[in-house]
Amino acid sequence: KCFPCLERLYVIFQSPSYKDMNNVRKYDPLDPIECLELHLKKVVLKNYDGTRDSSINFAKFFVLNAKVLKEMKITLPYHRQHGWFANQSSLLRVRNRASPDARIEMRCGTKDDFTHNKHTHDLSMDDPFDLPYGGCYMCKEKGLGDGVYQV
After folding, report:
1. How many structural domains compose the chain?
2. Theoretical Cys-Cys bridge with 146: which of 70, 87, 105, 135, CB 3.0 to 4.6 Å?
3. Does residue 129 fall inside a structural domain?
4. What are phi and psi of 103, to 5 degrees?
5. Which residues are in the FBD domain (predicted)?
6. d(CA 32, CA 18)
7. Which neighbouring-strand residues pair with 148?
């Protein structure tokens, strides 16, 4: 069971403190998780590295199972090359997403420690962890835009 009001999920990866998750229960569609089926509309993953199997599988879980997902924002702590984003799209199996209309956005160069964010406890806000994003410095320097990719 879930709380009917859980429509948003915010996760901040504290690298390198999280380890590969080996004891995670596999999702069984015959024993559905109510939030994934009916309520979860927004997922925000901050400081996602996309290099560890655990972080990739965690993000992929929501891509493949959140049926009413409208928006998924994934921020990366460092600059990544354009080809890296295409590879992530494949690893996360974005083409097989449970919610075909979900918008999945990745932003690079956004390492946040959230020490300056005063709203992290105000869950009534749309995104209490949202900090102003000026774009990825490296992407701008190389003329690649602001580092925001739709996958």
Report:
1. 1
2. 135
3. no
4. -95, 120
5. 29-74
6. 26
7. 107
Structure tokens at 21: 């998750």
The pTM of this model reads 0.74
Please report whether residue 120 resides in a domain: no
Give the residue numbers spanning the domain of 75: 8-13+30-114+135-150
CA atoms within 13 A on the CB side of 147: 23
pLDDT band at 23 (very low <50, low <70, confident <90, very high): very low
Given the DSSP bridges, would you call strands 148-150 and 103-107 parallel, antiparallel or unpaired? antiparallel
Position 130 in a domain: no
Q: Are 25 and 55 contacting, i.e. CB atoms less than 8 angstroms apart?
A: no
Structure tokens at 36: 């994934």
Phi, psi angles (nearest 5°) of residue 140: -65, -45
Residue whose C-alpha is closest to residue 98's, from 55, 46, 151, 60? 60
Chain center to CA of 128:
15
Closest CA to 117 of 134, 131, 135, 133: 131
Cis ω for the linkage preceding 32 (within 30 of 0): no
Handedness of CA 2, 34, 15, 47 (dihedral sign): negative
